[in-house]
Amino acid sequence: MNIPEENFARSPEPTLGVEWEVALVDPATWDLVPRGAELIDRVHAAHPDIHLEKEFLQNTVELVTGVYRTVPEAMGDLRASLSAVREAADSLGVRLWASGGHPFTDFRQNPVSNKESYSEIINRTQYWGQQMLLWGTHVHVGISHEERVWPIINALMTKYPHLLAISACSPGWEGLDTGYASNRTMLYQQLPTAGMPYQFENWEQWKSYMRDQAISGVINHTGSMHFDVRPASKWGTVEVRISDAASNLRELSAIVALTHCLVVHYDRMIDAGETLPTLQPWHVAENKWRGARYGMDALVITSRETDERWIKDELADLLVELAPLSEELGCARELQLVQEIIDGGAGYERQRRLYQETGSWQKVVEATADEMERLE
């Protein structure tokens, strides 16, 4: 059996790329509309240089940046793509909307895109695969050598609830308030290759694992491992997939900036010969759950000795610690927008508050769609 080697491309610099999943909704019913492929064709006809991808669901368009050195450059790319996508959406009579999960749609009315790997996922996972009406933010950061990848990923997992809390925006599901800040997080981990990565110690262990997955047929069934944070060997990056899909560019830029700074911070710690932080797998799992459940009100575990702190205090300290690095990386303004989320609330809080005031998830989707145009 010919098993391809897992070779990491290596990135000389900590370059940045972002993937943002955006859905299409009907401006009368505020339900999802399966016209993503048609919209992509219209954008490409008018703007062939803009990078859009079809996604798992026909109601979704993924905006993909090029490779950049700074957050402002990547956000400028997304802003241009969003403008073109909005122009095409207007011509189709649909609205753009982004969030971690749609609060009332019926999964049976949302067809999967015509792609063999997607059909195989549904065939393999059945009910849970059909439930994946979920949207995320994926941030790629370049890593210079494969032996740095897993120490950095394991360190990033200590900040899982931090990246989740500021982005969480999926409290509603099937017409109910789930009580969670990010119901997406809980649903997505039901896929057999999704969820927290194993705490591999080095690249050789990862290669051995991927070889096992290839021999057992797992990769053939699913196309890849869908971990919350994973190596993207083809691009020479670590891909951070923790965050819900932000509803607007302003908060998206804060999420991307914090992610970029954290990865580079841990990379610099390796340069300095410092030991990167880790938590026991059971603490990482507990923090993931607390972040999904409580969002900005989570009390999180911060050390191997099981010390705990409020997530807002943790985030405030992170902003101070990472401020000099953010200046160097050119994303100081974007990183400080995290403070705006701390002070004003995350997306799930706005959605839940409006639902409690109106009793209408339709109004919540409408208001969230408005955010994409208002908060740039």
Automatic annotation (TrEMBL):
One GO biological process term: modified amino acid biosynthetic process
Q: Which Enzyme Commission number(s) are on file for it?
A: 6.3.2.2
Q: Does the keyword Lyase apply?
A: no
Q: Which residues cross the membrane?
A: none
Q: One GO molecular-function annotation for this sequence?
A: ATP binding
What superkingdom does the record give? Bacteria
**Keywords annotated in UniProt:** ATP-binding, Ligase, Nucleotide-binding
Q: Which reaction does it catalyse?
A: L-cysteine + L-glutamate + ATP = gamma-L-glutamyl-L-cysteine + ADP + phosphate + H(+)
Q: What family is it from?
A: Belongs to the glutamate--cysteine ligase type 2 family. YbdK subfamily.
Report the function annotation for this chain. ATP-dependent carboxylate-amine ligase which exhibits weak glutamate--cysteine ligase activity.
In Swiss-Prot or TrEMBL terms, this protein is called: Putative glutamate--cysteine ligase 2
The taxonomy runs: Bacteria, Bacillati, Actinomycetota, Actinomycetes, Mycobacteriales
